[in-house]
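Take a look at the protein record below and tell me what you see:
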Amino acid sequence: MKDDAEPVILDDPGRLKALSHPLRRRILHRLRAHGPATSTTIGEVLGANTGTTSYHLRQLEKYGFIEEIAERSAGRERWWRSAQGPRDLRTPPAEALSPEDRPLLAELLRLGHAEDMELLGRLPESYARDRAWAMLSRGFTHMTEEGLAEFFEAYIRLLRQHGHSREDAPPGARPVNIRLFTLPADED
């Protein structure tokens, strides 16, 4: 992940829609975490039929989130992998979208929140079972808006510096879920 690519702002309604479907998000996560697969193998793991997974794979491909591995595909069996390139995907502010596209952003944020809550629910068990891989930190500080923006960009640089794509990961590397969110503390 050591690229200097600019962040990708998800301000295209098609890309927002592609990521606003629960099965597509599960497919994308599966490919990122476990590597290349066919629609059949993904369907088996995720409990969906091949026709459904094929459709959703094509939608993810259409918007550049995954790609076919042509040299591995043969006949009707198509192999897919997570697209190479930047992984710094950011949502736009709602006002940057047309009023009719704002529900797509709201759904994307809702799905992300549900995924984050599911991960958070698994934290105590993961922490007890595999302390070397389940880490946590809680913080509180005072920052300016500019300081918070600088902190966020430094965090992204750290992810790029220490992270690897699945393809260039060294031996012993595992897929890791990492989340950063900030909330104002004076609104409660």
Residues 91 and 112 are 11 Å apart (CA to CA). The radius of gyration is 18 Å. The longest helix spans residues 102-129. The mean pLDDT is 92.
